[in-house]
Amino acid sequence: MSGGEGPQRFGARLAEAVTAHGPLCAGIDPHTPLLAAWGLTDDADGVERFGRIVVEALAEHVACVKPQAAFFERHGSRGVAALERVVADARAAGLLTIVDAKRGDIGSTMAGYADAFVGDSPLAGDAVTVSPYLGFGSLRPLLDLAAQHGRGVFVLALTSNPEGAAVQHAVGADGRPVARAVAEAAAAENAGATPYGDVGLVVGATVGSAVSDLGIDLAAVNGPLLAPGVGAQGGTAEDLRQVFGDARRLVLAASSREVLAAGPSTTALRDAARRSADALTAALAG
């Protein structure tokens, strides 16, 4: 997914944004209690207003934002339209977006998801999250279309939820743990890319020793490592150092609650994001 003519690669654009603003990816998670706390209605209008406030506040202040598609989709077609407008606002503001949709399927259905989230669709941000658990090869239609459009893909690898280990730690027929096989497949996609590739992994900030226990070389992935679970969800600076080790330069730490709790004031959101980004920069230094 490196080189060639066409749009600037996602990995290169993300690296520039992290250099400029720090390694924070701010979530856009308009769930019911947070909408109420912001004085917004729990409907399509409310989630759209929520998302657009976050974009207005954080454009030119964070590396990227990550709208959670589910909180928009629960309001049906008007909610999906609201997500499209939030993505459009971010694009207009020059703010990178990772649409957190976690799609995964096979064949023509996967090609349909590719059209929706990395093609010319108004739902397509700069990157999307996907699930590889129908086999990494099932992602091929989406990986190929993402490369054509200069978009990124974040593949679930090691998640923090306890149930995830039953699949991610399982050993395949080739003797490799599933999460390690996913990481090595992503590394193959990113081979030779600089400053790093366009295929990232989702690795929870609180997975503890799982990376080393499973023999995963995150530095070799040569792609961005999206790390949810930082801050209010329990992930600490020490967790980041333990989990990511010498791959810390690749980490893009996702934080939602810690930043969003400061809203709806755009000034307060901006200040919370800066504090979080500064703390993450310090935690990942060295």
How would you characterize this protein structure?
Strand 4 (127-130), helix 7 and strand 5 form a beta-alpha-beta unit. The mean pLDDT is 95. This protein has an eight-stranded parallel β-barrel with strand order 1-2-3-4-5-6-7-8, surrounded by seven helices. The protein is built from 13 helices and eight strands. Helix 3 (44-58) packs parallel to helix 5 (76-93), helix 6 packs parallel to helix 7 (140-148) and helix 11 (237-244) crosses helix 13 (266-284). It has 286 residues and is α/β, with parallel strands linked by helices. The chain has a single domain, classed as Alpha-Beta Barrel (TIM Barrel). This is Orotidine 5'-phosphate decarboxylase. Keywords: Decarboxylase, Lyase, Pyrimidine biosynthesis.
The global form is globular
Helix/strand/pairing class, anyone? alpha/beta
Mean pLDDT: 95
The CATH class label is Alpha Beta
Helix residue percentage: 40-55%
CATH topology: TIM Barrel
Number of domains: 1
CATH architecture name: Alpha-Beta Barrel
Integer-rounded radius of gyration: 18 Å
Strand order, largest beta sheet: 1-2-3-4-5-6-7-8
Low-pLDDT stretches = none
DSSP E strands, number: 8
Give the N-to-C terminal Cα separation. Answer: 28 Å
Number of helices: 13
Order of helices and strands: HEHHEHHEHEHEHHEHEHEHH
* Strand percentage: 5-15%
